[in-house]
Design goal:
Largest sheet: 6 strands, parallel
Order of helices and strands: HHEHEHEEHEEHEEHEHEHEHHHHHH
Oligomer: single chain
Helix content: 40-55%
Strand content: 5-15%
Distance between the termini: 27 Å
Strand order of the largest sheet: 4-5-7-9-10-11
Bound molecules: 6-deoxy-beta-L-fructofuranose, manganese (II) ion
Structural class: alpha/beta
Number of helices: 15
């Protein structure tokens, strides 16, 4: 039997941390009551908050320069599911994971679905991969996939995406995320207009295959691995494609896929306005698509994104049903610890956004009182909501201090013993 963290250890650790939690919770409860906010209503909303874990994120990540594998690396999707379940067990924020194919390919998807169910995790959007060549693959994606000049390559890429939908149906997913690396490194290498024609032609074939209750998530990215032009480089192009394809196509916002200092929360607001916000790949970055831990570089930006999401929910924005997922690369930390911390930081931004007094904010905005508007918004961000996050975790059966319990459990060491090291890639993101 592979090691699972015993519930008794969580209960024991929670008991030790309970007095401090009760004290801090009571203090915050009084503070919020003075603002006319019932802390219980916030805990309830946080308790139903969920963000999916990327299966490719539980293994150590890397860059083109190197990947330094850690101990107890997952050997395949079954190990990855175990680690995803451990993140859910301790944080109660991650009931689903987002798989990637063919990285998570198995021969028996019913067995995989069964194992996931037994571990208490489900499947969110599936991700296709036409940005790498697989061994035995007939045609290369070196010069593109859904937008390759050769129709045969485009058809091969369409077929792969259709296969991902079939797999997703077996796993209970309801969406396909399509990110393509297609682009050019030289001006003149491709016709900037024709490649979008091919993209729309190819994705229309994929769209036609979507089950009635599925969505197609189009993921834009400014650059990398293409460094002159990227076919789906920004939200505008992604929205053009979604509107051309049909109502089930929406735009997925990976926070790291924009030029530095782009106002992402405004992009989010625009996509919500037209009912085309698919959801997110949360992470953080300072320069490029750094895939750092969510909230680790610019937590205020993450808060501003959630402020738009809470505002949209509050006004009942039509078609508002965003999927929340993490998409990170853990090059120097234990991926499980980083993913737990990142899930908590996204829940933190959500809770802080829930604490914004929207009536007072609107009042200041309508009065063109710039500073007051900023202060009413910032008041949410400046509230330490840790006791609310901990309370929601505890009530959900999780750990008051997930990382402390994880370290105390020796889970990583146990997995090191259980999982003989596999020869992984020595560079690259996975
Ligand atoms: C592309 C991306 C995409 C995934 C990949 C692992 O940068 O964000 O979402 O397919 O990372
Ligand atoms: Mn992504």
């Amino acid at each position: 039997m592979s090691y699972r963290i015993p519930a008794a250890l969580i209960a024991e650790e929670n008991a030790g941390a309970a007095p401090a939690q009760e004290d801090e919770y009571a203090a915050l409860s009084r503070k919020l009551a003075r603002r006319g906010v019932d802390i219980e209503s916030i805990v309830k909303q946080v308790a139903s908050f969920a963000v999916a874990v990327p299966t490719w994120g539980v293994g150590t990540g890397g860059t083109r320069f190197a990947r330094f594998a850690g101990p107890g690396e997952p050997r395949g999707v079954f190990d990855k599911l175990e680690d995803c379940a451990t993140i859910q067990q301790l944080t109660r924020l991650t009931p689903t994971c987002s798989p990637h194919f063919p990285w998570d390919k198995v021969s028996d998807y019913a067995e995989l679905a069964e194992r996931a169910k037994a571990l208490g995790v489900g499947f969110d959007a599936v991700n296709s991969n036409t940005f790498q060549d697989q061994s035995g693959q007939k045609l290369s994606y070196k010069f593109g996939s859904l937008t390759h000049a050769d129709k045969a390559v485009r058809s091969q890429a369409v077929a792969h995406n259709r296969e991902c939908i079939e797999i997703g149906e077996k796993l209970g997913s309801k969406a396909l995320t399509v990110w393509i690396a297609d682009g050019a490194n030289f001006a003149g290498q491709s016709n900037l207009n024709r490649v979008l024609d091919w993209y729309l032609e190819s994705t229309a074939e994929i769209y036609a295959d979507l089950p009635a209750d599925w969505r197609l998530f189009l993921e834009h990215k400014l650059y990398e691995p293409a460094f002159y032009s990227t076919v789906i480089s920004d939200w505008g192009t992604s929205l053009m494609a979604a509107e051309a394809l049909g109502p089930k196509a929406q735009c997925l916002v990976d926070l790291g896929h924009h030029a530095p200092n782009v106002n992402i929360e405004q992009i989010v607001s625009r996509l919500i306005r037209v009912g085309r916000l698919a959801g997110f790949h949360f992470n953080d970055s300072k320069y490029g698509d750094d895939d750092l831990d969510a909230g680790s570089i610019d937590p205020f930006r993450l808060f501003l994104v959630f402020n738009e999401l809470v505002d949209a929910a509050a006004r009942g924005a039509p078609g508002f049903n965003p999927a929340y997922m993490l998409d990170q690369s853990h090059n120097v930390t234990d991926p499980i610890e980083s993913l737990m911390q990142s899930a908590i930081e996204t829940a933190r931004a959500y809770a802080q956004a829930l604490l914004v007094d929207r009536a007072a904010l609107a009042g200041a905005q309508n009065a063109s009182d710039a500073l007051d508007g900023h202060r009413w918004l910032k008041a949410g961000f400046l509230t330490d909501v840790s006791p609310i996050l901990s309370e929601a975790r505890k009530r959900g059966g999780g750990a008051l201090d997930p990382i402390a319990v994880y370290r105390k459990s020796g889970y990583r060491t146990r997995k090191f013993e259980e999982r003989p090291a596999v020869a992984g890639s020595t560079s690259g993101i996975v």
